[in-house]
Design goal:
Blueprint lengths: L20 H4 L39 E7 L5 E5 L2 E5 L1 H7 L1 H7 L9 E2 L2 E6 L3 H12 L13 H17 L3 H14 L4 H8 L9 H14 L5 H9 L3 H5 L8 H22 L1 H4 L17 H10 L20 H25 L5 H7 L3
Parallel strand pairs: 1-3, 2-5
Antiparallel strand pairs: 2-3, 4-5
């Protein structure tokens, strides 16, 4: 790779058309039909697994009532795997456009019923559905997650809710999950700096980052991908060559390895260029600044690191051995360079620009 070039054209952004989130949702197949007025029926996406038709659905032979979500005044029974949930149609409909459409369609005679309620078979994971019902019935449920929760706890907390709020078009729940997701994998430079300078800064495990990428792709939360890829690109080559359960595919790993070289270029030519090619401030009155070896020595330390980290803020300003005017000048160059790296970050991994990523994930 030519490290001397700083042309934007060196890292082209992928611009081929991709379907919106609404158009990629699968038709939710249950014993109810979806009302077309809510536009819940859409084109099948390869990112989702097809749901069996009603004629091929197999109900669990001995489903049991869920201990917590069986309300005696509930108006519909939802079967998810081996559990039955007796819940309120109006409450689900208020949260989900898909359920709102399902419940408006009159049911034909002969359908499965229990205690006067129709039974609807949903092809979801039981724990995911329980998590979503907690969020639906408890307005303060998201507040039960501690502000200091680590990334593994956050991902475990939001995974089920995010999957089903995406599938059933529950916008409010999905947005709450995305807010928590981006608190760990930021999508703005200001959020990144807040996270990076926090006293509770945590180190992410490689398996956790891989899981986050898989969840983001499954639920089409694209705005977390650039920083997640950044984390993968900084992993050791030994780890990237391993193939563990839950890892991203080799195509993603190759993208990250190519991105790793681009991050090295960005560190040298954009964010930390003031070390490699030191220039005095225009207001500098100290002649010795022109001959200082401090910046170049600091660059060699940075270059020896195992992985590039162009977003990381430089802190060893005293080691530059320059006057205050030159130090402030270098700090301004450094901050502008880090912001520029953040802006370019998606393109380093052949992703669309930040704004397009956020636009594509809207319901």
């Amino acid at each position: 790779m030519d490290r001397s070039s700083s042309s934007d054209a060196e890292y082209p952004t992928t611009t081929r058309p991709q379907p919106s989130l609404r158009s990629s949702l699968l038709t939710t197949t249950t014993t109810f039909a979806v009302a077309s007025k809510h536009e819940a029926t859409a084109t099948k996406s390869p990112d989702y697994q097809a749901i069996p038709s009603p004629t091929s659905m197999e109900r669990h032979p001995n489903p049991r009532k869920h201990e917590q979500f069986w309300f005696h005044d509930g108006s519909v029974i939802l079967q998810v795997e081996s559990k039955l949930f007796r819940v309120h149609q109006t409450i689900l409909a208020n949260h989900s456009e898909v359920f709102a459409g399902l419940f408006e369609v009159p049911q034909p005679p002969g359908e499965h019923m229990l205690e006067g309620c129709h039974i609807v078979v949903l092809h979801d994971k039981e724990q995911d559905f329980v998590d979503m019902l907690h969020a639906v019935y408890n307005p303060s449920y998201f507040d039960t997650l501690p502000p200091t929760a680590d990334v593994d706890t956050v991902l475990h907390f939001i995974s089920g809710i995010l999957r089903l709020s995406t599938k059933y078009l529950a916008r409010t729940l999905r947005n709450r999950c995305i807010t928590l997701f981006t608190s760990k994998f930021p999508s703005t430079f200001s959020d990144y700096t807040t996270k990076a300078t926090s006293t509770s800064h945590e180190r992410y495990k490689s398996d956790t980052v891989m899981h986050a990428i898989a969840l983001a792709r499954e639920t089409q939360v694209y705005e977390v991908l650039p920083y997640a890829y950044y984390c993968v690109a900084r992993m050791s080559m030994k780890r990237l060559m391993k193939e563990r359960e839950g890892d991203v595919g080799w195509k993603d790993k190759c993208q990250c390895m190519v991105g790793r070289e681009r991050l090295r270029w960005a560190e040298m030519s954009v964010s930390h260029s003031f070390l490699l090619v030191f220039q005095r401030a225009s207001a500098c009155q100290t002649l010795t600044c022109a001959h200082t070896r401090g910046p170049h020595a600091e660059w060699h330390i940075l270059e020896a690191a195992k992985a590039p980290n162009p977003l990381r803020g430089f802190t060893r300003w005293a080691q530059l051995n320059v006057c205050k005017e030159c130090e402030v000048h270098c700090q301004n160059i450094h901050l502008a360079g880090r912001k520029d790296v953040w802006k370019r970050l998606p393109s380093f991994f052949d992703l669309p620009e930040w704004e397009m990523l956020k636009e594509r994930q809207k319901l």
